[in-house]
Amino acid sequence: MLKKTTKLMVLLLITAGLLIGCSSGEEENTNPDATTLSFWNRLPELTTHFESFIASFEEEHPDINIEMQTLGASGNQQYQTAIKNNELPDIFVTANVTSLKNLVDQELLHNLNDVVTPEVKEQFYPGVWSENLTTIGEDIYQLPLNSGKSAVLMYYNKDVLSEYGVSEGQIPTTWDELREVGKDIYEQSGGGTYGLIMGAEATWLSDMTINQMATNITPEVHPSIDVARRINYKTGQPDFVNDGSTQTIEYLKQLMDENVLSPSSIEYNEPTAIANFAAGKSAFYFDGNWAGSVLMNEEEGPGFENWGVAPMPTEDGGTYYNDMAAKEGLMVSNNTEHWEEVQTFLNYFIENGYRDVIVASGAHEPPVDIEVTDPPFEQYNKINELSNQLSVATPNIYKQNNSTIGFIQDYQGGLSYSAGSILAGYMQGEVTDPVAELEEAQQQAMEVFNENLNKYEDVSESDFVFDDWVPFEPYTTE
């Protein structure tokens, strides 16, 4: 017991680094005449490989110095302040606090047309070039870091499963199976190990989990937490109160009540939950496809290798889905005084970064076709296989009507509820009736939605209705 506790304390100390902004740990360029480019990274799972990549870049380009800062928990505030004061760094990973169009309208971004020429653009998967995510009209403003294929998955600890007699052929695929396996593990362990841990303190992660799991039951409600949050693509209206949302929230609370889901989940953010899962405190853990790279990382994570990955269980064992969209990428400040050096860095990244950062980290699938003959870890190809299965091209409201970009920005900005925050309140006992809470969320969403319909004369409810869309099938207008 002492050994397990000591291991957990060490893992928690290691993963605490995910919450703290840090600069590149590599030796800095000592050339006094070098041009310095500032670079903000808000994806901690890429930090280690960005550092080594930057070191290689500086070695080949001694006249350019890259000062990287990995943003911690205060990252959103740093972006908001930088946007307000027009002080964005030379290069930065997507500022997800506002829309791409808003940044362009404020003249804060430098377009990347000189870098992503038509010839270069052909190297990328066509689906990554999407209005208000990577492009505005014919102009490119974001160099995508990944293919846009992602999903929340279920990670399983092979050590725990082996200890309690669960084979990989018995990995749960239905809600009932997860509940039964989890209860059995809890009882066998005398309450020392749970079936499941979540990072429910990170309500955005719970929101993703609920929204995607719920598509198994109510697939017409868009699962994204970034685009068209909780909008039903058949009715064209917000839809918080539906069978998928209510049943999923009730199910997760039932897991906690029956000692399947660790009650500490409500106190765990993502890195803390990962650390406890790796330390054997649970058999299963829900997180995005990037979590595998964090589990394996000895510097930014617990350095844990003996795990597997599978789809999350659903009510009936059927599939669920997430939208396919390249939301993360590299952007450039319109105020950069070193555009030539920035181009050099971005060109170097296109040539080497997708292999040396994205693939090497194992966090994401790259947006270009790279043959991975030597995966960064054993489970990498399985994660990408599942992400490809569970990521589906959904209707693009921005393509249907460009005016919906501002509408969605204001609509989502007016929402104070999310499925993840309602689950958190329910688990803590602050919410006693989640359906009533969802109904309040629905009322607020409809009020905000209708207010913006009045505000945006060029937007109508029909812009969010796609009668020709069949959920779970890739959507195309061609």
TrEMBL record:
<keyword id="KW-0472">Membrane</keyword>
<keyword id="KW-1003">Cell membrane</keyword>
<keyword id="KW-0564">Palmitate</keyword>
<protein>
    <submittedName>
        <fullName>Extracellular solute-binding protein</fullName>
    </submittedName>
</protein>
<dbReference type="Pfam" id="PF01547">
    <property type="entry name" value="SBP_bac_1"/>
</dbReference>
<dbReference type="InterPro" id="IPR006059">
    <property type="entry name" value="SBP"/>
</dbReference>
<feature type="signal peptide">
    <location>
        <begin position="1"/>
        <end position="25"/>
    </location>
</feature>
<keyword id="KW-0449">Lipoprotein</keyword>
<keyword id="KW-0732">Signal</keyword>
<dbReference type="InterPro" id="IPR050490">
    <property type="entry name" value="Bact_solute-bd_prot1"/>
</dbReference>
